[in-house]
Design a protein that fits this description.
- It is a single chain.
- This protein has 369 residues and is α+β, with helices and mostly antiparallel strands.
- The chain has 3 domains: 2-127, no CATH class; 140-267, Rossmann fold (3-Layer(aba) Sandwich), CATH 3.40.50; 293-367, Alpha-Beta Plaits (2-Layer Sandwich), CATH 3.30.70.
- It has helices at residues 2-9, 11-24, 49-71, 76-81, 84-90, 116-123, 160-172, 184-189, 192-196, 200-209, 251-267, 305-313, 341-350, and strands at 36-45, 91-102, 105-114, 140-148, 151-153, 177-178, 214-223, 226-234, 238-246, 293-298, 318-327, 330-337, 353-357, 363-367.
- The strands form 3 sheets. Strands 4, 5, 6, 7, 8 and 9 form a 6-stranded mixed sheet that branches. A 5-stranded mixed sheet has the order 11-12-10-14-13. Strands 1-3-2 form a 3-stranded antiparallel sheet, sandwiched between helices.
- Strand 8 and strand 9 form a beta hairpin.
- Helix 3 packs across helix 5 (84-90).
- It is globular, with a radius of gyration of 22 Å.
């Protein structure tokens, strides 16, 4: 209560709160736009947490605008000339994926959405392509279903798959996607067996209660030492992602990141290219699509190898990711592409990552969160 009294009696706090509300109110509008940049890390200091958040969001919007432009071939000099005011005017909203505050500090991961008409005014007529329709429009309910022998676990504490998805959801939550926590109402509406057998009445009741447009299931099962993962819609049982198996100690975490990243791609597909051509300077020995390319991945402090592999697998155009060696802060990968490298570079850039060719026939992967 003392903290609240201090906040609302400070002369600056009212102004800061108003600014914060102006930034936060458009967040709901961004859900339906495909011009979204996710995973934007922000950190700022201020005279109060509210002022720090105001500064951090402004910086994050500018960083997101530059990422979006770079991913679509906008020249570097144009990107460097962009201002925070331009980014704020072009942004139609933002979503806080995760955040932490301190005394006069604010740190978060944002998803920032831009208005295509505003982007066209900033970057010119050739800079904005008509967006594709998302594969998964509308609001989704994601059910974490795990098979244990002959039993299907959903809300039980022994459902480690639910715990892994919940842990990753804060930072990787796809837009317009809800992960039920197992409230009394949810438990009363549906159980694991009903979800596994696609009980239409119970699924419809859950969908109605959560005001969603469809229910999808992320199903996990131990197969030997691996974790087998499927993602499908119900009650039609249509696979939305290619079923995959994840080996090793971090299979649950890697599988969860794969699921959330994959759903995110289906929710907000990237239209390429913005411009008719995107030129990238590559060495003569650059690896064509279809052949493994040697990549040195620099892993930052907030990333883990399992989550990085899962996020890479969720990028359209990346067919396979194989780990060759791991040392502190980096990993040697073999990555096989199914699309031209320029297209993959653009998609990586939209996720805050860069893939750069080096002399000697290898590549460096940087960034991401």
């Amino acid at each position: 209560m003392k903290a609240l009294r201090t906040l609302f009696t400070s002369p600056f706090s009212v102004k800061a709160l108003a600014c914060l509300l102006l930034f936060a109110l458009p967040a709901q509008a961004q859900d339906t736009s495909p011009f979204t940049v996710r995973g934007v890390e922000v950190k700022a200091q201020g005279t109060s947490p509210l002022k720090a958040k105001e500064t951090a969001v402004a910086e994050g919007q500018l960083e997101a605008l530059r990422r979006l432009g770079k991913a679509r071939g906008v020249p570097e000099d144009v990107l460097a000339s962009l201002t925070a005011e331009q980014a704020a005017n072009a942004a139609s909203g933002y979503q806080v994926m995760s955040e932490s505050t301190g005394r006069g500090s604010y740190q978060a991961v944002l998803a920032v959405t831009f208005d295509p008409a505003a982007l066209q005014r900033i970057f010119g007529g050739g800079a904005v392509a008509m967006p594709q329709t998302p594969t998964l429009p509308g609001k989704l309910v994601l059910l974490p279903l795990m098979r244990s022998g002959t039993t299907w676990l959903l809300w039980e504490d022994t459902n480690l798959w639910k715990a892994a998805l919940s842990e990753s959801f804060a930072a990787q939550a796809p837009l317009e996607t809800m992960l039920p926590t197992g409230t009394m109402e949810e438990v009363a509406l549906i159980d694991g067996e009903a979800a596994a057998t696609a009980d239409k009445l119970k699924l419809e009741a859950l969908k109605t209660a959560m005001k969603a447009d469809r229910v999808i299931i992320a199903e996990a099962e131990r197969v030997g030492e691996n974790l087998s993962v499927r993602v499908y819609s119900v009650p039609d049982m249509t696979d939305l992602l290619t079923p995959q198996e994840f080996p090793g100690e971090y299979a649950l975490q890697e599988g969860a990141s794969h699921v959330l990243s994959g759903i995110g791609q289906l929710k907000t597909p990237v239209s390429l290219p913005w411009q008719a051509t995107v030129t990238t300077s590559l060495p003569e020995n650059a690896t064509p699509s279809g052949e493994p390319m040697r990549v040195l991945a620099l892993i930052n402090g907030t990333e883990t190898l399992p989550s990085l592999r899962a996020r890479l697998r969720g990028i359209p155009g990346i067919a396979q990711v194989q780990v060759e060696a791991v040392t502190p802060g980096q990993a040697d990968l073999l990555i096989t592409l199914s699309e031209p490298v320029e297209a993959v570079q653009n998609l990586l850039a939209a996720q805050g990552m860069s893939l750069e060719a080096q002399e000697g026939g290898y590549w460096i992967l940087r960034g991401g969160s």
